[in-house]
TrEMBL record:
E.C. no: 4.2.1.136, 5.1.99.6
Matches recorded under NCBIfam families: yjeF_cterm (TIGR00196), yjeF_nterm (TIGR00197)
Subunit structure: Homotetramer.
Binding site for K(+): 83, 149, 191
Superkingdom assignment: Bacteria
Name the record gives this protein: Bifunctional NAD(P)H-hydrate repair enzyme
Length: 565
């Protein structure tokens, strides 16, 4: 499990580590700056070539004919806080490697915080510091340079203004000619981005207030922050490198509630986590008793792998439920039964084999059957009175249930249904369905943030999970999963897990089926949602472009094989 931190958590962890005497702020800043330099060399190994001594002949792209060429170049943009302090360290370390480094400061050096001030002075022993403005950066001189954005990091509290905006516009190529830079490297985050939400802090809606140039590489410290993985963060940040600055123990102490005063005592619940590759052990043979993993135990027959019901709509509308049922079966539920209205039985029977079919009139009996231990309701289900009363019966049964699509619409609109939700419910809204569940949270999420931290998808998901008392899976390229008690995890399908092919009709139905299948296998709601979200994206990655929803469950055997199951 890897924690995803908010800015406040990172600050508290840093403060706790410094207070414990294990490390000083100056040490952390030095490690941070060094980490940025190392991450640059890792990303562009050709830049690691000149270590001290004479400058090497420049590669073609770095050549500056007017000046006769020379060493590698960096332009370091430093802000008024410790993010700027990291920038001064980067400048010094690159200059020590014979880079040509030009440093700009946004703000007054007198007002720099102490550690940043120390590093400002250390840099001043090597070179100049220019005041920052869009005009002060000469486009021609810096062609081919690596630009380091160390203006603002976790301390961003309001929209950029003045020279900071000028320079952002310059970097965006909005002012004059865009510099043909080698790379834009952001320290902690591209400045202007809120690290809690992945949303820009801006004066107004639309382009008028937003000048965050997208980085090629963002280097952050110890752990990713939420803003790197949710909202627009992944698009602005580019590749994100995480540098160890020696705070690993401090992070774990905080997340496991062992820190002293500096961190909230309910910290363990306050920390979000990245959804990880699932546990492939499980069952009494493989891990602690009671733990559930993906591996099936050799001594169990199908009735021990659970029985999932998938409730279907009427004739011509059963496709979504069939996709969910196929997903539930492939992910390993022992039995899957489609529950269909009488007039849709023939049509359904023509389309499925291993999946069983029962008429909707039998629903009450099925819900009374203790062997049925998970239900999926919503995909293609309908909103008519029959659907409402079936949903009511499902919720009254207190069985673990995935509510998707039409079921979410009904729950959003009907207070009495909402009152029946319980801890075994998993709601899987996309953005539109989320707005129906909680118009207030959706509105806050869409409101332009004029000060930081901005209200985030994590805040919104947690809020609705707590209000409804169940697990909520707020889908999207950034899928946020929250439990009523505050636990929260994020699956970010970006960079090496980018699966844009998942934006295809019916893929959400398959996800609902995956979750229901895992619930049937005994996974707890949160664990089922996390595991299903990971497998869903893994199936999409396995198939690649051209994917349609039907393909997703069919990738599971290969994905399971890759997991060593
Ligand atoms: N927390 C940690 O553990 C570490 C933090 N480090 C660095 O320190 C950074 C955080 O430093 P700070 O807390 O000083 O925050 P920042 O350096 O992000 O910025 C804070 C300063 O900018 C001002 N400010 C905020 N928004 C502004 C705006 N729109 N226009 C003008 N001024 C604005 C604030 O009043 C404050 O003076 C991190 O992002 C990271 O780069 C690293 O040195 C390593 C360790
Ligand atoms: N760009 C994307 N990258 C990764 N996953 C995505 C992307 N867009 C959508 N998804 C995923 O695809 C699924 C779509 O679900 P949903 O919107 O309910 O579709 P449908 O109702 O057609 O089944 C969700 O699991 C969502 O997380
Ligand atoms: K920055």
């Amino acid at each position: 499990m890897t924690e995803l931190l908010t800015s406040a958590q990172m600050r508290a962890i840093e403060a706790a580590a410094i207070a414990s005497g294990e490390v000083t702020g100056l040490d952390l800043m030095e490690r941070a700056g060094r980490g940025v330099v190392e991450a640059i060399f890792e990303a562009w190994p050709e830049l690691a070539a000149n270590r001290g001594g004479a400058a090497p002949a420049p590669p073609g792209y770095l050549g500056n004919e007017e000046e006769g060429g020379g060493s590698f170049r960096a332009v370091v943009l430093c802000g008024p806080g410790n993010n700027g302090g990291d920038g001064f360290v980067v400048a010094r370390l690159l200059a020590e490697r014979s880079w040509e480094v030009e440093v700009f400061l946004y703000g007054n050096p007198e007002n720099l915080p102490p550690d940043a001030r120390v590093n400002y002075e250390r840099w001043r022993a090597l070179g100049e510091v220019n005041p920052l403005s869009g005009r002060s950066i000469d486009i021609r001189r810096h062609a081919g340079a690596v630009i380091i954005d160390a203006l603002f990091g976790t301390g961003l509290s309001r929209p950029l203004e003045g020279a900071a905006v000028d320079v952002q516009r310059f970097l965006l190529g909005l002012k004059g000619r865009s510099a043909a830079r080698k790379a834009l490297v952001a320290v902690d985050c591209p400045s202007g981005l809120c690290l809690d939400s992945g949303l820009p802090i801006q004066k107004g809606a639309g382009a008028a207030g937003m000048y965050v140039p997208a980085a090629d590489l963002t280097v952050t410290f110890q752990r990713r922050k939420l803003g790197h993985v949710i909202g627009q963060g992944p698009l602005y940040c580019g590749r994100v490198a995480v540098v160890d600055i020696g705070l690993d123990k401090a992070v774990r102490d905080a997340a496991e509630g062992r820190s002293a005063d500096a961190i909230d005592p309910i910290a363990a619940r306050a920390f979000a986590r990245e959804v990880a590759r699932p546990n492939t052990s499980g069952g009494a043979y493989y891990s602690a008793p009671g733990a559930v993993g993906l591996r099936k135990r050799v001594d169990l027959h199908k009735y021990h792998q659970g029985h999932a019901l998938v409730l279907s709509g009427g004739p011509g509308r059963g496709g979504a439920a069939r996709l969910a049922a196929r997903g539930a079966l492939r992910i390993g539920a022992g039995l899957v039964t489609l529950v269909v209205p009488h007039d849709a039985v023939a049509e359904t029977a023509a389309r499925v084999d291993a999946i069983m079919i029962r008429e909707a009139d039998d629903a009450a009996a099925l819900l009374d059957d203790d062997r049925v231990n998970a239900v999926c309701v919503g995909p293609g289900f309908g909103l008519d009175p029959r659907a409402v009363s079936l949903l009511e019966a499902v919720l009254d049964s207190k069985k673990r249930v995935v509510l998707d699509a039409d079921a979410l619409t009904m729950v959003g609109a009907q207070r009495h249904l909402r009152a029946k939700l319980h801890g075994g419910c998993v709601l899987t809204p996309h953005e539109g369905e989320f707005a129906r569940l909680s118009p207030q949270a959706a509105k806050k999420l869409k409101t332009t943030a004029k000060s930081g931290p901005a209200y985030s998808k994590v805040d919104a998901t947690r809020e609705v999970a707590a209000e409804f008392g169940c697990t909520v899976v707020f889908k999207g390229a950034d899928t946020v999963i929250a439990h009523a008690a505050g636990l929260c995890s994020v699956h970010s399908a970006h960079h090496d897990r980018a699966a844009p092919w998942l934006a295809t009709a019916g893929s959400g139905d398959v996800l609902a089926g995956f979750i229901a299948g895992l619930l049937a296998r005994g996974f707890a709601p949160m664990q089922a949602a996390e595991t299903a979200a990971w497998l869903h994206v893994e199936c999409a990655l396995k198939f690649g472009p051209g994917l349609i929803a039907e393909d997703l469950p069919e990738q599971l055997p290969a994905v399971f094989r890759d997991l060593g199951l």
